[in-house]
Predict the structure.
Amino acid sequence: MAGDAVQVNVVVGGRTTAFASRLSDQRFEGYVNPEAYILPKGQIKSLRSPWAETVEDIHQALRWFRGNASRHRNVERRKAHRFRAGSRRHVTRSPTFERQISQNVSYFLEQLETAGTMLSGSYVNIGANDGLSDDPLAHYARSEKVKAGGGALAIEADEELCAKHRVNLPWVKLVCSRVSTQNLKLLLSGFPPFARSDLDVLKVDIDSYDGPIIKECRAQRLRPKILQVEINAGIPPPLQFALLDSPQLRETDSSVELLGVFSEKLPINAPIAGVSLSYLVRQLAPEYVLMDIASPDAIFLRADIARDMALNPLDEFDAFARAWSDVHGFHRQTLRRWVFELDEVELLGEVFDFLSNWMTSHLGRLMPFTLTI
């Protein structure tokens, strides 16, 4: 194998299956549209990362894309014409900048304040970790506005992380519990009523049944100004995918780990985890519109605020192809073929087969999920 080959262990209930592959074949950070790599003067933008494509990989992808450019662009445009929900084009940005803003929701909240929207210092953080590590609410959580607001709630399942959260952010109400669609109402029961309709941010990142949790949050009348959700970047528009909350899923407790390059096990998301971009765009409409994509998260803005800011919704197709992606468990060339060569019906069939086969192979059974156009 090549020098960047790794052993990939898929651990499910103590059972392990292993195989060897390139690291960037298991987790890919990069642009789906290879032309997004090209800088104004024609140079190739690249990133020195074990997850990223090499310059030769990028040249190969460009040759493939341009080898049938007319067909590739027509397929993408035809799907977008049929299903597009937004009109604002995505501005290609550097990977470093995208990572910075994805980890700091204050970047977006400051835009709201500049436009005249009042913030209350309130948020709900579902999947809060220790409150600081790799959390987009970390900066805002430490602000004087949040400390004075009294309307911040964090939910985290891991006891060790909860202990750290209490030390890191003692002024934030913390509920240490696994969240589900059945218990979310109870977990939110102590949240101040005034904050529900005037919530600044709702963040959901549980790497699982995020879609149903978001639906339940709306059923509980949480009405955030900004909603930030980690998306499954391996499932392109217009497919609406969401892993569902189920007893089978809670019993399985699967994780994917990479071994062979690093000194310790490195977890990545399973390809069946979470929710697709198009699922969120359509489930949240018309009350919310797509404001931005900052890998690996989608940021939605309440539609009334977007109108006040004269901000058009982001084009989900353009953003998916040209925003910096963080893709777990999908080969980058498979993803590009799905985007640029398959119509929506062919795409639906291939993605269904991919997800079903992965579950059967690694989990031993199918987990309930929804997948539609």
The longest strand covers residues 5-12. The CA atoms of residues 245 and 325 lie 26 Å apart. The longest helix spans residues 344-363. The chain has 17 helices and 15 strands.
